[in-house]
Amino acid sequence: MDGMDKLYLQYKSVAMYSAVANAARPLAELITAPDRLHRISSAAEVFRAVADSGCDSTGEWIAGLVLADDNPFSRAAARGERISPKVKAQVRNELLTFKQLSLIKPSEFEGDASGFFPQFGFGGFSVTYDGLVQSYANSGCGILSGADSFVYRDGMFKTAAIRGERLSDLKGYIEEKYEIEKNTKSFVDGLPAFHTLLYGERGMGKSATVRAVAGEFCGRLKLIEIADIAELPELVKRIRGLKQKFIIFADAVDLGAWEANRAATDRVLDAAPDNFLVYCTIDRARDGGDGYGGQTYGKAELALFDRFGLVVTYLSPDSDGFVDILKQILRSRAIKWRDEYGSVAELAARKKGGRSPRAAKQIADLIECTYAQKRCD
Description:
Elements: H1 3-12, H2 18-23, H3 25-32, H4 36-53, H5 58-68, H6 72-78, H7 85-102, H8 129-139, E1 149-153, E2 156-159, H9 174-188, E3 196-200, H10 206-216, E4 222-226, H11 232-239, E5 246-250, H12 255-260, H13 262-270, E6 276-283, H14 299-307, E7 310-314, H15 319-332, H16 340-352, H17 357-376
Helix pairs in contact: 1-3, 3-4, 4-5, 5-7, 6-8, 9-10, 15-16, 15-17, 16-17
């Protein structure tokens, strides 16, 4: 048995990283390709896969697949669990196989196809067992290792960009933002921190604050937005024990949906926070005569407040506060304030049904557009 035949058998014996082996199939099939046509086809697949990965060589490509793979070994390493000697030996053998595969050179198979045989880069596989264990502990495995923000829906993770402005871009609500930022910093620093409820009318900046705070701590925690509060317990099972820290963000939760899943969600919130915190926003509907300043809450709301260690309430700004937010936004856009903007703001707020940072931003957009048109004229 020559070296190439042995390497192909080693490739077929890959068990733990079977998904990686499947992705690397075109590279392995160069060894067994029966004729020139099959060799060229396999080499073309390898070239395309390396290019799609953004890597320069087969070794870098395969290493990226290994580091992101989700398997029993990578999950155990991510949680700091004991690895059995048999699993450890199998993983070491598979890493050696991938390294040897990465050393396959196109020139060994091009034959009389020289001149048009796809010349993929080779080599560059530098993953070691100890380094792999450390990588999983630091960054996690599977899809959770590849980004800092995710959406969790129907039991599946999907990567997502952290939306919204930086915290300094959000105007007003200084104390509210400070409370959430301070709680998050305590969490990432390993100090006591609390599950947090952000409560108030729509458009006050609750969601934007959570996303902005997550962005401030990018690299030290991961944000997971959950689409259905009923999936919270299952999500917690998926991430519990991982070395990374997570903010689970339930945005604009309906009180009825919360009540329907109350028993399961209460168990999550009552447990001592481990590697995650739950941040939840709930919109308070305007209730007519009593207004927001009356601070009256229903039984469901009061019961919900009791579940969170930290409740941050976003009150609707008064007229002066609303104008101040608008001034700050315009100042950040280098637009000089005019007294007439105050009257415009108040009139627009009435039409929109209330004062809020979102309404102030929309008014600022209108003013900026008008300002730009006048400059052009």
